[in-house]
Amino acid sequence: IKDDGSLWAMGNNQGGCLGDGTYITPNHPIQIVPNGVTTVACGEMFTIFLKDDGSLWGFGWNGDGNLGDGTRDNMVMRPKQIVAGGVTAIAAGYLHSLFIKSDGSLWGMGNNGYGQLGLGTNINHTLLPVETVASNVVSVVAGANHTLFIKNDGSLWAMGLNGWGQIGDCTIDWPHRPEQ
What is the reported pTM? Predict the structure, then answer.
């Protein structure tokens, strides 16, 4: 993201995942969005970004519904609006995405095979954004197949794959809903 809010990309463009509408792999930065971008998060061959009007956008690989546009279209080759407004923060994992709305609610979409969306289940995919059971969320990060977030009281919560203890609860259990 440049100072003017423009979004640029370069590198592997397999399947058109850079969002420029082509399959050409550039070895130099190319402009994807001309202005208004404030935050960007990258997953496995996909990108989501937040604009200054609170809208959420995405492009790239969408085979698991990780863009939240209601489809499993393998490639979304140009930026596509997912949420019209009210988004304050974003995170992208391996094949899942999350965002926080201005009311502190946490939403997720995409792969949920390990419970990384915090829905209380490990239903494989959600194609549209789904509200998690978390509230008062101020920050979120996504790992490969797990998610961590902070609530407004400073507490740290986690959910998803924990086979190597990556959520830090001294177990190797895989919580399907947020645990402190």
Answer: 0.92
pLDDT, one tens digit per residue, over 104-120 is 999 999 999 888 998 88
Q: For residue 98, what are its two tokens?
A: 């999350």
Per-residue pLDDT of 10-25, as tens digits, reads: 999 987 899 999 999 9
Residue with tokens 């590198």: 11
Two structure tokens written together for 95: 């094949």
**Burial grade of 144 (CB within 10 A; 0-12, 13-18, 19 or more):** middle
List all residues 6 or more positions away from 170 whose beta carbon is below 8 Å from its beta carbon: none
CB-CB neighbours of 95 under 10 Å: 24
